[in-house]
Design goal:
alpha/beta, Alpha-D-Glucose-1,6-Bisphosphate, Chain A, domain 3, six-stranded mixed β-sheet, 18 strands, about 35% helix, globular, disordered C terminus
Length: about 450
Amino acid sequence: MTRLFGTDGIRGIANQYPIIPEVGMGLGRAVVAYCRQGGMEPSVVIGRDTRDSGQMLAFAVATGVLSAGGRAYMAGVLPTPGVAYLVRHFRAGAGVVLSASHNPHEYNGFKLFSANGFKLSEREEDRIEEMIRAPEKYPQGGPPGRAEVEEDGWQLYLGFLGKTVPGDRPLKGIRLVIDCANGATFQVAPKLFERLGATVKTLFAEPDGKNINKECGSQHPEALQEEVLRTGAAAGLAFDGDGDRLVAVDETGTVLSGDQIIALCARDLKEQGRLKNDLVVSTVMSNMGLRFALQDMGIEHIATRVGDRSVMEAMKEKGAMLGGEDSGHIIFMDQHTTGDGIVSALQLLCAQLRAQKPLSEMRQIMTIFPQALINVPVSRKPVMASIPEIGAVIQQVEQALAARGRVLVRYSGTEPLCRVMVEGENRDDVERYAREIAETIQAFLGYSNSSDSSAG
């Protein structure tokens, strides 16, 4: 039986299993049972991004919560990290977010937070999944619970964000362009940056249910780059659909990677004496340049498997306060319990103001190694080692790159894709090697070959 939960919650096409109201109702009931078993309040904060399927799924989850006798706090449209904050604010037992993050609008998903605002562990997800699949294991038929509409949820979150930076108007005089991806940040981000003193030009803050992430946001910063150059802004900030990622653009229109943001924030925190244990955590997908940059600064680096949850688990275990992914999902543990694109933007801008340098100069702290990433659609996901031909081509490329490059091949946790990443010093070689591996994977695992390949 395929596991419901993937790398980041349950995700798929809305109104197709498992992103259907029936699963949402089961999830709502299961979360209440999970809260009761853990001795927590049987109350759940429910938030969503701007997808047109969000209301349907939010009401389904709420129905499940109420049918189990729990309380549902209906927070409406709110960034994912905003739900994590409200769970703690309301002292709720859990939080559920309806979002598919950076994916197109036809996708949606269920993300879960515990009472302390952290994402659930795989073990906790497995417990909830078992409850969803076997509802007879927890009581039913008792008195229903209540729902409360929290219309000021985003304003509570706005107040929290303002307290993550010093002073009343720390961004006074800085000119910004922000891209809200027609997503969950469309209300809170423009208001926040203006309140903190910045002059703000806002792009893509008119969601219609279908335009979330469409040619905008962290996945498509082209319009943001153009507007930064046109207006002479000091920086551009792009968020993804649910607001937990940040992509930044410097004053020359150049995109900063998540790794570059991590590197320059690490230096700023170290200079302030705030970088706990002189340690930074990222995933195996981080560019090799990050490791070398941190090494030059005397900062230890730990790489985890892919996923912000893996980063957070390592941060808690090793006592780090800064970690993240090259995708722009960055965690500042002393500010929040989860990755927050707006918090990341504020930390980046404050670091720039302290350095009194343009972002184009600050990003030079890290040299980016050429990297090729190819997503190969696959019909199945067997253990890679079970297909000798794929293992052989990967080994050949690794030997050619030696110590100055690397190969990472993994399946997506949320989509039918195999991700091929090759990194090294020469761009032409890197791209050629990535194509060779991708073509081999396509030959054995691609849809057109799903019926005539017996491997795995």
